[in-house]
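To: structure subgroup
Subject: Chain for Friday's discussion

All,

I'm putting the inputs and outputs inline so they're searchable in the archive.
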Amino acid sequence: MQAWFRNYIAHPSQAAAAWLLNTIFALLPIDWASGLGSWVGRTFGPHLRVTQTALRNLRMIFPDLNEEQIDNIISGMWDNLGRTAGEHPHLSKFDPYVENSRVEVVGGEYIDLLRDDGQPGLFFAGHIGNWELSPLAGSRRGLVVHLIYRRANNPFFDHLVQKGRSALDGDLFAKGAEGSKEILRALRRGDHIAMLVDQKMNDGILAPFLGKDAMTAPAVAQLAIRYDCPLVPTQVERLGGARFRVTFYPPMEKPDTGDKKADIAALTTEVNRHIGDWIKQHPEQWLWVHNRWPG
């Protein structure tokens, strides 16, 4: 009965609401769509059940913050998430390399380096700011970047999200067995892949994240070491409204101790450190609703 209700009532109803809102966002100018998304996020988000997960995470990671400061971060998180949703149907209109662009790119020389070095490469980011812009900043500079993503539980909603991502030019590889095969084939061809690596992975490895051990997907470290290819940290910051800075950092140094397992763990820890530093800079721009830490 529960499966029937989910498949034939809940999922279609959620999808219809999402499609309607997405259509409204698409019809509006970018700034209006982003602003409407902000209002929807701030108005309804704090009342959703997942906000309790965000509150628990924030109290654990930032024990010195008072409740007002935590509430401000929660409000900012829903503001950012709502804006990101409002901007989603407009991704094709974001071009970092035109005059008066909405997207400032720092470290573009590292995109050029990977584009011209004749070998595969990896980028990683977190669910911070409008995270969809990191692969876009590469593709608009002549570097095709494939994206690894987690399928949404609701297949109708998943289709909507992937439709918006068609502006990113590269292929979309779903997490899982089939996606893993496509990823390996792409890297053997010398292609480039972007990954969001800040979500919990139950069968991952324990690595420090914001001062607490967290189950972490080691795939980006495993691939970087296996293919001996550049691994580029990529930070997205919302500067205000629908304006952003995307920063590409120098490729990370990969440990080479001869102990592959230890090297993967060490590189995974460094990846988490980068993302944790970005979150500390803009805690209101990270998606705190993940059940990220054990307990």
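Points worth raising on Friday:
The two ends are 31 Å apart (CA to CA).
The beta strands are 103-106, 121-125, 145-149, 172-174, 192-196, 200-209, 212-216, 231-240, 243-248.

D.
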